[in-house]
Structure prediction request, 1213 residues.
Amino acid sequence: MKKNFLYSTFIDNDSVFAFIKAILGVFFAFFVVYFILLATGYKPLPVFAALFKGAFGSRRGFGETLLSTTPLLLGGLGFAVAYRCGLFNIGLEGQITMGGIAAAFFGFIIPEINPVIHVFICIIAGIVAGGIWGFIPGYLKAKFGVHEVISVIMLNHIAFKIAAYLVSMQGPMKDKLDDMPASPFISDSAKIIRIMDRTRLHWGIFLAVGVAVLIWLLLFRMRLGYKIRAVGKNPFAAEASGISIKKHIVLTLAISGALGGLAGAVEILGVHYRLFAAFSPGYGFDAIAVALLGMVNPLGIIASAFLFGILRSGSVFMQAMYGVNKDMVSVITAIIVLFMGMSVPIGIMLKNRIKRNSNGTVD
Amino acid sequence: MMKVFKTVLLVFIVASVGMGISGCNKSVPEEAAAAPAPVAEKLVMAMVTNQSGLGDQSFNDAAWEGLGQAEIKYGIERKVLESREQAQYVPNLSTLAEQGASLVVGVGFMIKDAVAEAAEMYPDTYFGMVDGSVDQPNVASIHFRENEGAFLVGAIAAKVSKTGTIGFVGGMSTPVTNRFEAGYRAGAMTANPDIEVLISYAGTFADAAKGEEMANPQYDQGADVIFQVAGQTGLGVINAAKKKGLYVIGVDRDQNYLAPENVLSSMIKRVDIAVLNAVGMVVDGTFKGGDYFYGIKEGAIDFATSGDLIPADVIEYANMLKGKIVAGDITAPATYEELEKFSPPTM
Amino acid sequence: MAAIVKMQNIVKRFPGVLANDDISIEVEEGEILCLLGENGAGKSTLMNILYGLYHYDKGEIFIKGEKTTFSGPGDAIDKGIGMVHQHFMLVPVFTVLENLILGSEKVKGLSLDLNSSKKELEAISDKYGLEIQLDAQVSDISVGMQQRVEILKLLYRGADIMIFDEPTAILTPQEIEELYKVMQSLRLLGKTIIFITHKLKEVKEISDRVIVLRDGKLIETIDTESTSIRELARMMVGREVLFRTEKPEVETGREILNVKNISALNKRGLPALKGLSLNVHEGEIVGIAGVDGNGQTELVEVLTGLRKISSGIITIDGKDMVNKSSGQFLDAGTAHIPEDRLLRGLILDFPIYENLLLGFEDKAPFAKGLFLDFNKVRSWAEELVKNFNIKTPGVNVNAGTMSGGNQQKAVLAREFQRNPKVLIASQPTRGLDVGAIEFVHERIMDAKKEHKAILLVSLELSEIMNLSDRILVIYEGEIVAEFNYGEVTETEIGLMMAGGEDK
Prediction:
């Protein structure tokens, strides 16, 4: 009886089990990293401590943690929306890039105006640009059956090349007064206001959390979200009940891309203040892991984006305190990401083990 | 189910015991090292690399070497944070400033915005900026007069050339590479007014194959010496020289070891000297923000003679030009405009 | 005859369910024993215990008089027990021969000794009359032959007690006949067969004895000879079952569905419908009889907006519906019970209330601006669950965890809720047990009473014969014959279904 109670509370309860899986994944990750650090001559525990000290130990560190949480959260939401519709949008990096380009353009082309209006214009520009970059693969899939993964990879490359061209020596968005391959700085009125003294943290984090709640409402409380999920879980049944598959594929990818564009815009307006070719260090790709670890649930994604934010900002401190070399830092974060991603298969394994021993389905 | 729990439990126990043991054993010396330097008063001087990181055999390594020399000369402690991506520049600089580094040097022009931002956030910390200008009282912006070095190797190339044609392969056409080109052409013109200089830019600093592709036509058109200012791409130029058995001139540091028979000379940029000087200013308490220019006069720009490929009279000639530049008799042009106006001095 | 298998006082508990409640059975050597019960009665659980797949909580098992405990199917196989599952365990890209020797390969030097295995296998299949092409690739052979391959695999591994888990569910009538023959010859040569089924006709046709299970309990063990289908049905369902649904007298009204000369391609791009015409009136049930694959699937898809037609006319209540979307068909008053409820009918990962909502999400009272009122949806769903007698712990349970019968009831509940003008019911009782079939038929009759126009497509000829007012026979994408209720025999229709007689 007790067994059944444990089972139904911890294993069968999806949200609790998701949490257990995530914790297990993180635990296994640290376990493996522990031995790698040991084998490569570092002292694991202080290095781990440094990771958290870096992420939480100072006002600035905490600010940086939340700062990198912001684009990861928005990107993760973008991936989740598409994933809920059965679409694999690995094009977020390109969508982020396009959003950044658009935001930067309206940021510097418009002179100082009312800051609220200016930021609003730039963010909308980013959303539209990212949305277009999501709409294209959606349209190609709906109209010609081109698999979104293929078209989106190509669109990524196109976006990267566009950004690189725009700020290259001869590029139209290049700041002619500066050696750097970058656009001119955006007007002050286009900058998102910082909220913590002596940190770079800006309002974007609240915007991102707000958007997460909005996406949660969209997916689980709104008609559109219900249809998106229906198409994602069983397009044939959805279609038979009058829900258009094609329309929702296009719409969902456009929303997904728009979220990427928003992430890019917020990065430019809140952090860099000008366009660089590679201003996003792969947030769009990390977003996939963020979304999956967050069980593609917007509220879970808030937590997992925060976790990834800790890794990003804490890893700087690992290097600073213990001289862990930058490639080693990459390896460590990659392993943690890998295991967090593996929490899903780990969960399945665990569930199956338990099932085989004490459970089965009634035929 | 019990079996699974037992296994998991076992793993937990092993892990926590393992962590505990090694934690106990190792935390003692560790804490000593981690605690803010009980030896005390040892100033920390730090640097943040660009995305190439340490081991680039170029100015990141050179700057790190400068800090190494400072350790010996001034008894400071050096520290480095390597950047993996553009977004890390600010956190890296800030972390070092926050940890109490007296000087934080940013290397490479891409880090410029970040240095400006960190310098504003930490007004009590001194910053160095290699290859870029940041207008702030606590930032020393370090510039190199590459045009002077290029002038010298241009003269050497023109003197050594038997065909009367020499070449120049740049990475991307940027104000910096253009500065090299201007100096190079002026130097060549000075040594031989009839010299023909072939110019091409590969469009990338990172593609060795492209470098070879750029160099070969120049050699085929009769150039027998090429000056490469092209980073990774330049390695392809050196390769082409090796295959053709012709001369090439290296950049930033002595590249003779790459092809001892073919690397005629190299234009040397002593980032280490500039960094050492910056440390010196901090130690002496004479640090002042502003632009610092390093050229031949400061001993930070030179040409390499290893490999013994340059005839003695040419070395003598180049040294004579060096003297004139130091004395201010010759000003090596740094831009196309200055090159236009440049006329070879009569000697 | 001695009991070759004895299972005593077996108890097996799943969370919340007592799947086997103190069940004792004996299987005699050389007999065909039927294990009869509705879905969820505990038949497969009991056999999975015998095959070593599940542990049991209480009880004892004796094989050939020897007390045995299994820790897995491997032990069961060693004891000579084999099981043919509903889903075959074959590697599609391997040949039959390679599949058969997989796991017990004979090796000669470094290479496989295929020849000696092949000879051995040929000898076995000859002995039992199993027609198998050993060199064919599994993906190329028919489902029936794949099943025979599974049987041969058991024989090759020396099984003498063979469990068949609902083996006829996936077979055509001809293949079922062949399977019966194989089973007979297996029995003649001394094998013992346990046959799991919920189809009464099969029990009568093939078995020597029947064990009836209901709700995890043993109801009866009986010789097949001494019982009737009606009695078996009563034991299985627990009450009297009406085999012929009362057909209400309803006056037919105006024409609702009108289809004229429609042509359409199937998903492979080949012509599936060739100038087909039909109509259905208010209060009328029109049955489409035919052998599977003669255009029924495409016809239903065309009539629900899921497939485009290349020519022809479709109207619903006078409204032109040619190549309209599935949503427009719903709006025009169609309801659709899809032939494959798992594919088209339900979203298995969605809870019941979200499944019932499908197609209503944009309608009052659930749609509120951009939002959905899920509280309303839930209470409405609870009501439907009650009205349609859907057995589930609650409306938050995922549809995928329900039994087939309850899933079908959920589909029915939703589709009837549309208050359609025309109901397109495609194989509405496929895979259901007697009780559920009766329920579905009654609901269809209710719809008729409510003056709905009903198009019934089914592969079960008896279903068509019992329910339809008019019967249309479809053959190669055309309607080749039309009969009125009661004016035709099964044989006549069967002839037409096979392409008709030469005139």
In short: Chain A touches chain B through 49 residues (CB under 8 Å). Residues 326-358 of chain A form the longest helix (33 residues). The CA atoms of residues 317 and 323 of chain A lie 9 Å apart.
